[in-house]
Amino acid sequence: KALSLQYPFYQANLIKGDSYNALENYTAALEEYLLAYQYDSTDISLIKVISETFFKTNNFAQAITFYNKVIEIANENISLLIDRGNAFYANEEFYLAINDYQKYLQLGQDNAAIYIKIGNAFQKMDSVVTAILYYNKAIEIDSTNYVAIEEKGNVLYNLGDNYSALNEYIYAAAYDTLNASLYRMIGICLY
Fold this sequence. Notes:
Elements: H1 2-6, H2 9-22, H3 26-39, H4 44-56, H5 60-73, H6 78-90, H7 94-106, H8 112-124, H9 128-141, H10 146-158, H11 162-175, H12 180-190
Helix pairs in contact: 2-3, 3-4, 4-5, 5-6, 6-7, 7-8, 8-9, 8-10, 9-10, 10-11, 11-12
C-alpha cells in the first residue's frame, strides 16, 4: 500500500516485478510486469524487461512479440536487434535471427560476436559454407577469437576435413589453453 501512495499504481507493480525477477520467480514477475504494461504500454524499459523475462522462461514467441513492440517504439534501437535476434535463434527461426544480426551489422556495428552468431545460425540450417564465411569474418576482426576458430574447426570436422579441423583446433588452443574439448578434438583429429 505504501508503494502505491508514493508512485503511480503501475510503479508498484514494476517494483514487485523486479523483486520477483531478482528471486528468479519469473512467472510472478511477468504477472506484475504485465499489470504495469496495462497502465503504460509505451514504457520502453518496461517492455524490454517483459521481453527479457519471457526469454528467461523460454517463451521465445512472447519474447519476440514484446521485442517487436519495443523496437517499433524505440525506432530499431540497435541493441534490441541483437536481443530479438537471440530470441529468434532460440525459437529456431534462424532466417529471422540472421536478418536482425545483419541489420545490426549494417548499422555500422562491426562485431566478431555477431558474425559468430550468424555463422552458428547458418550452421544450424546446414549451410556450412556460409557459416565458415562468417566465422572467417569474425576471425578477420579478431584473429585471437578462439570461439570463432573453434566453431570453424567444428564445421570442418563435421565435413570430414580432419586435417583442416586439426589446424583450427590447434590455433584455437593457443588462445584458449584451458579448453578441454579443444584438446579432445585435437586428439580425435590425430587418431
